[in-house]
Specification:
It contains seven helices and eleven strands. With about 300 residues, the protein is an alpha+beta fold. The strands form three sheets. The chain has a six-stranded antiparallel barrel with strand order 6-7-10-9-8-11. Strands 3-4-5 form a three-stranded parallel beta sheet, covered by helices on one side. Strand 1 and strand 2 form a beta hairpin.
Length: about 300
């Protein structure tokens, strides 16, 4: 496989459990009548010699009652489940046959960027556009062509095409190393907070959240929270609690990261303290932490 920096890894050997067919999982959104993942390689059927190891054939055998809207993915260099360029024509012809039979509707053509540098992104864009031209020459008429996610959506206008799949930027977190989310004008949309559950006269309190809740235990001595409107240093992260250098009274709100932006710590600060990336900070919050949707009105 190809790493994010463009170099190749060592050969990876995968084991495949081979048995009889049971089911092919096709995530389906009935509200929008769309299949989420279509062109997925199935290693089990391939290992037993199945010549049709992709999911287009599985869709055909499912015999849907109305055309399923699909997006065909060309592998433009990231090697994440896309159709290899040498197999693209055959895959498009197969999809067109299914479209003419009323099984599918080719709604889009897309790919992923490896984010390994501007030159790699430019090559991937060229690969995608060539695939679109080839598909058009064969008769495909997709309404959507898409490639960019957060980083290219912000810095590479030429890659925006018909839509941008914003991911981490939608959380207010920068996809770049040289510019923070706040510097980009992104607003954090996720706030993680607790309250002071234990306190004493020694300037030390405990908040009711710990690493079992997803608070990074390896954030180090620089990690801070917002307690009673002031930044305070975390002394330790335990299973269910955090010990904090503060004299805040019982019940005081403790904000680990999020709102208010610019005052409370940002997820990117936590990432720097823990030696990781913002993506991990926001996705590691445990399922036991209640999720509460607040004002989502555009402004």
């Amino acid at each position: 496989w190809t790493r994010f920096d463009g170099t190749r890894s060592r050969t990876v050997t995968r084991a495949a459990f081979v048995s009889g067919d049971a089911v092919t999982v096709l995530p389906y959104d009935p509200a929008r009548d769309r299949v989420l993942v279509v062109e997925q390689f199935r290693s089990g059927p391939f290992a037993r010699g199945d010549a049709n190891a992709w999911q287009l054939e599985a869709i055909e055998r499912a015999k849907p009652t109305r055309p399923l809207r699909i997006h065909l993915k060309i592998d433009s260099g990231l090697h994440r489940n896309g159709i290899p360029p040498e197999e693209w024509e055959a895959a498009v012809r197969c999809a067109l046959d299914l479209e003419r039979s009323g099984v599918v509707e080719i709604t889009g053509i897309w790919s992923h960027l490896a984010d390994a540098g501007y030159d790699n992104d430019r090559d991937a864009l060229a690969e995608l556009l060539a695939a679109v031209d080839q598909a058009a020459a064969l008769g495909a008429r997709p309404r959507l062509v898409h490639l960019a996610a957060s980083s290219a959506g912000i810095r590479e206008p030429e890659a925006r095409l018909d839509l941008v799949r914003f991911g981490i930027a939608a959380y207010g977190i920068s996809p770049f190393d040289d510019e923070t989310g706040l510097e980009l004008g992104l607003e954090p949309v996720m706030t993680v907070k607790s309250t002071v559950v234990a306190w004493g006269d020694d300037g030390i309190v405990q908040a009711g959240a710990g690493f079992a809740d997803g608070i990074a235990p390896d954030a180090g001595p620089e990690a801070e929270v917002l307690v009673g409107g002031k930044r305070a240093r975390i002394l330790s992260v335990d299973v269910d609690t955090c010990t904090i250098a503060s004299d805040a009274p019982h019940g005081s709100e403790v904000v680990f990261f999020g709102a208010p932006a610019g005052l409370a710590p940002h997820a990117e600060e936590w990432a720097a303290w823990a030696g990781t990336i913002g993506d991990e900070i926001v996705t590691r919050i445990a399922v036991r932490v209640p999720r509460v949707a607040v004002d989502a009105t555009p402004h």
